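Write out this protein's structure.
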Amino acid sequence: MKRSVVVESNGGPLGVTIAGANVHDTQLLAATLDALVLAPPFPTEEQPLHLCLDKAYDNPIGTRVIADCGYVGHVRRIGEEKLEDRGEKTARRWIVERTIAWLSRFRSLLVRYEVKAENYRGLVRFACILIWTRIWHRLKAKNPD
């Protein structure tokens, strides 16, 4: 089972797609971006929409899907080394991995017991709602105003 997740800067899941484990990530990219619960804001020249992806999306299919959806893609190229000096840039990839780990903490999602895909998809969406509730409570505790 593969879960493809789009998250925002705090790690809150915005869209989730499930598929078989033998499906390549680039084949799930369009479906994952279509599964967004909230429509992204309309991109402008001052505020383009950014999409950070890993090396698995460095191919013509991934590049085409990113361009068709109107995003500015940030994909590290295959063979490109990681820069040592990060400067002011913030880490992005671990936020997605952390969200996937949060989803895996739900026992009913860790091992798929449901036969029907609709039931499993419903459990994944319910887990995403619980994650958003926890993020909201954490942010509210930091800013009690």
